[in-house]
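Hey all, sorry for the wall of text incoming. These are the two entities for the joint prediction.
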Amino acid sequence: MNYKINNMKRSIKFTALMGIALLSVLSCKKSYLDQKPLGVLSADVLANEQGVQSLLVGAYSLLDGYGGNSGGTRSPASNWVIGSMAAGDAYKGSSPSDGAADVQPIQVFNLTPSNTAASAKYLLMYDAVQRCNDVLRTLALAKDISADKTKQIMAEARFLRGFYYFELKKIYNKVPYIDETVTDFNQPNDKDIWPNIEADFKFAADNLPAVQIDRGRANSWAAMAYLAKAYLYQKKYTDAKPLFTNLIANGVTAGGQKYALIPFQQNFSPQATQKNGAESIFAAQASVNDGSVASNGNRPDNLNFPYNGGPGGCCGYFPPSQTIANSFKTDANGLPLFDSFNTGNDVSDPAKPYTGTLDPRIDLTMARPNIPYLDWGTPSPAWVRDPTNGRFLPRKNVYSLSEKGVNTSTESGYWGATSITSNNVNLLRFGDLLLMAAEVEMEAGSPELALDYVNRVRTRAADPTGWVYKGSTYDATKSKYNVQTTPADNYLIKPYPTGSFADKAYALKAIHFERKIELAEEGHRYFDLARWDNGTGSMANEINAFLLYDVKVNSTLSGGRFVKGTHEHMPIPQSQIDLSASQGNGVLKQNPGY
Amino acid sequence: MLHYLLIKKLKIGITLLLLFCAGVAWAQSNVKGTVTGSDDKLPVIGASVKIKGTSVGVVTDLNGGFTLSAKPADVLVVTYIGYQPYEVAVSSQTNLNIILTKTSTALSEVVVTGYTSQRKQDITGSVAVVNVTSLKSVPSGSTESLLQGQAAGVSVVNSGNPGGGSQINIRGISTISNSSPLVLIDGVPGNLHDINVNDIESMQVLKDAGSASIYGVRGSNGVVIVTTKKGKKGKVNITYDGYYGTQVPLADGFKLAGTQTYMEAIFQMQKNSGINPSSQQFGTGTFTIPDYILPAGAKEGAPNTDPSTYNLNSNQIMRANKVGTDWFHEIFKTAPIQSHNITASGGAEKSNFLFSLNYFDQQGTLINTYLKRYSLRANSDLKIGHVRIGENAYAFFKDNPIVGNQNEGNAIAYSYREPGIIPVYDIMGNFAGSKAPGLGNSQNPVANQMRSKDNQGYNWQMNGNAFAEVDFAKYFVARTSIGGNVDNYYYYYFSPTAYENAEGNTSPNSFTEVSGFRYSRTWTNTLTFNRKFDKHDVKVLVGTENIKNYARGQFGTRGNYTLSTDPDYVNLNTGSPSTATNGVQQLYSNTLNSYFARVDYTFNDKYLLSGTLRRDGSSFFAPDKRWGTFPSVTAGWRISKESFLKNVTWIDDLKLRGGYGVLGSLSGVSNQANNAFSLFAASPSNSYYDIKGTGNSTVLGTYKSQLGNLSTTWESDGIANLGFDATLFNNKLDVSFEVYKKSITGLLFRQNNLAASGGAAAPYVNGGNIENRGIDFSTTYHGSVNNDFKFDIGLNLSTYSNKVVSLPSGLKYQDFNSSGSTRIGSFVRLQQGQPVGAFFGYKVAGLFRDAADVSSSPTQSAAAPGRFKYEDVNGDGVITDADRTFFGNPNPKFTGGFNLNASYKQFDFNAFLYGSYGNKVINYVKYWTNFPQVFGGNVSADIISNSWSPTNLDAKIPKLETSANFSNTGVFNSFYMEDGSYLRLKSLTLGYTVPANRLKKYGINKIRVYVLATNLFTITKYSGLDPELQNSNLNDNTSFGIDFGNYPANQKNYNIGVNVTF
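and here's what came out:
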């Protein structure tokens, strides 16, 4: 009996306890379900100077083409896919099936609007645009930033936005314009966005300092250079001319150096002491071994290295074409063969090699068999991945052996660490600017000035201290060969003779050709061809000639055909058109021909 | 101390029991006997043995024995719960050996369902009771894999990867993300993966909303209820279960070319492309197999082939394997499997305990893959008056290095990619590989696996709960349980410089170490009211539940280990400091708060009505979208109890049942815990930038990482279920048949934002509906030829059709990539009207026969004889994007399991077959092996004879050629699709139980020995290794049925095993 009572007491106690437990759960605090986000920030944390500056750095960080939406090898800062490969500067490379679904169709213009290599840049550039917009939006909320600072941050963000839209404009032509005030992102692509781009560059040019605290930032001169470039693209030569004149006379880099041509090779050096030099107007900064798992080097170019034991070790993409190699042939006067470079023997053809003279820049642009390749010796045949890759290997993005592990990544955890370098991507260098200025002068100024600008570029190339030499060691810290006795090939380059630009057609041809070889493999050619085309079909002719000529080296070019009136621009991504349609009115329209 | 007390109590209990038994058996005797169970061959303790028509009887003792006095004319009736009554005439027998047959339809058997238990006959929802004995008929370390074929409506896809997961879908594809069901082990959310199968007492699968909606938001993928064993009243029982076996790799492998055929394919490819054939290995113009592949193409005696000139980095020397290396069998080897399990259990009046220990060791047939697991369980209950307290605790430690399955970059894939001319080792015993130029870019799979041998993956977990229960006020039971999971994982791997490969042969080595922990905590409180009066039976349950999940984890990496790469030396300190990186491996915290109620009402044992209601609040959503309510109602009608069926003797029991309810799911947002908010983040790879131009450092940058959506809420899943259960022909036949419709609405779908909105991760929104309709059917026939020969035949069949009803507003379709490979784009498109996972691409009409065929066909880019001719689906005369179409459904038309159990005297036999019919699969391996231009890797053995040529117009394989284009390898098309139907003998067991009387003197109650073989045959038309194909990512249900070189699940396995009970 006693036992029972005890038991009952116990169970009553127990029930009471459980009742309390139940009640405590029922009255469970509302905050129990308010779990704070971990490891991320809310918008209000960033509404101050430091926060806005960090957003601005975030907006810069997509310049390198990596990170963000679709960032990677198909959305490179260097524009190697569309800017160079699609214009005949190079082949896709690698194994034929590698990239067969996306990059190869661009090479041969068998291009559908669903092509993901064609759309990657679109996706990434809008990501970048919105990062700029986020800077502007958050800037408006911050209370602790001085008026001057505000203006400068705004100018930097708008410069970047202008830059990103410029990329979109030149690749896709008609694109929707979204600024920081837009909340409905389903905007039509029926307007020309040049005025918007100009407005951003103008604002930036007016409000940025000439010298920046950091060399990677845009300064007022960079903004002016891009404004001038935007005018050139629109053929607003008279607007462009004074800007170019001013830039050439007075422009300085963000670091405060007066614009100048530096030894050619130094433009492609990953060394901190050489990059961001006097020629660098604006560049995508690359860094390695910075704790980012090899994400801040020129990662989108990481496939564009020789194969199997060579620099990078992978993957044989982007080998220079036979046509571009032949373009470096020079005549007895040291001048290019505008129309006949593909006649006669091919450069480096093992069976019937071309033995004439060459522009020395050829061996600073590409690696050729039996020619010293920085300090890598002569290229091994095993470094050419596939017979369809032709004879040449990339060079402008390649580091020297002595820099391996210092200016290349050693960061583990990424398969291609050795093909990540701190080599900046030159978005706009002074050599490029001089040639643009030459075009402007030819169109709306003086042929003498144009000739002078072109010859400044050629004179630099003619400087034998910058050439490639046989039987010599290479000094990467100076970007030159130590012993300069035996040039690697039969180099001959001369300036254009005085008065030769009196013939405008000849002069333009010369300027255009100079851009082709000076800027080869740097991602400009496709856009140059497109703006020079003017409905004449010159672009189609040029690229189809390349496809027809080079197919004998690279059988994968077979069947390629550039269609005039269509392929001057990439298609608006089908996914975006479909999405636009699904969000109601379907305001995005495809480019003609796709 | 606790143990001591328990044992003491147990001793007292056993003594009491013995006294009791002795007391009953005092009567004078002339008939003796023993009673054993047909199922486990163990003595039946406490069975009642009565003389028919009298009240005279005894109860069997601890050895199943009894003695009583009876006349020869008497008939003894032996009964025991769970067994069929057995009658035997005494006649002249004095020593009876009585075997009781397990009751076929334990209608009164109580099964655990949502928070309560029910008699099987009262269940109105869709509950599949898994036969735990059949479950154990396949040896495996992953318990979820054993569910395959065991219950209608439960689809399981396994692989041969030891410790690898399984893809489980209950009643079709119910979500595009993780479809794993909620698993409750003793009421606590847990994981089937590592539970010791020997600990399982019972397992139920709740398939419909009626049974599962009490689990609300977590019930959408179905619920698996596992109850672990408890000690039973009686003497201490010790059992040992063990087996040892060997697993044999598949004999055929990928059916690849030898060196000669490989060389011919490369030759043919170039010749067909109009190129003078040339290869760094085989020569120019005409091809011959060289003696060495490094130096490339060298003959005996050539420069740099002298072993004295050997240098691993500058002059590695590799001989050609002129026959061809059989890479598949270089990496797949015969491997042992073993399991040893000891369980001790017992109980007394007021307490019981169970203690089990298991060691499981499965070496994978893929070298250096394995699962070793040590586990321990301790379950105990204690009764103090009206209060019961107890605990279930399970802890295990496992060593299971992670091997990614279904990826074109793992060792299995390299075994079909690496050309056979490459030997495993070079002349000095170092690895050979594609560094020998001109032989593609694949990796030496043996090297990859051998190098992983020092990698480790450890994990220790504890899960279980402690509970207390009290009866009060006659009809009430209150219960509280606190339980959860603590999971600690730790692994590291070293990636040496793969000097032998074409790519990265100079890349620095690296070492990565990862660790982290997760915990989940569940606190459940319930109050039950149960009352029977007159013909009414009412049961009411109310409860609350409170769950928190939390995880943190980190990784660190270093590289450039130059002094030594000895695993004893390599750690995060000894690598080069400049290569140090670290980061977050895992970080989350989320909570769930719930209230639920359930009412079961039965009238006259005939009319059943049940309703549940759950309200869940989740931290995943914005405050005003946080709460969801999930109701269900079910009803049943036991027609067999109606008077008009009383006289239908062949119907023992017939119940119609049906119900409707709503479940929820948030598995879609589980990776975006703070879906409601727009957030910013800082990421070294994504937003830091070297704005100072230093070349080796960056400045902090931030970016918008996520767009929030305040209106996102639960995915909800309405299920209507209608079916019947019948027991027929004197309990010989059980049939269960159900039809269901499962409508998933508000599918959690990552919004597809326009690129113009930026790169921040789009929020998940509720858009999209999926519908599954299906039939689950299961039947069991219990037969006996005579008392010695009995058999059970079980069959379950499931069929479903799955359809995307709609997508988020206006979205026409969404394409999903598979993580296995994206080389030829996505394989599937999610689109209204199509099943989830439907293959989408160009439909191959055949190969272009000749130039005339090309010119008379629709315009197609890169069209040429011997290449794919695509169907002009829209009939516009041009093959474009718009001609892509849906050409195959990976969802099976039906799947089924067939179980045959038979016993003859002391022998028992089990055969288990599983099949899948009507599912299409993609054999992506063909992309590599049927196209020599694809990275120059190895090719299929039949490539020369079966590829197109002007003299082989009806070829299966396209023309061999160098270019890769739209009309051959450039796009995904139906060439890769095959029929994935198969029927497999999953297991075959033959056992023998030593007669009990022979063992008694050794103090052993039972010994059963058995031999078991798995996968003795698979009938299929599929040309790959195995048509049972797991997803590349088990958490992603968007694409499935794609073969990237799956770790095959159909390897033969021969085991011997023994069960001993003391």
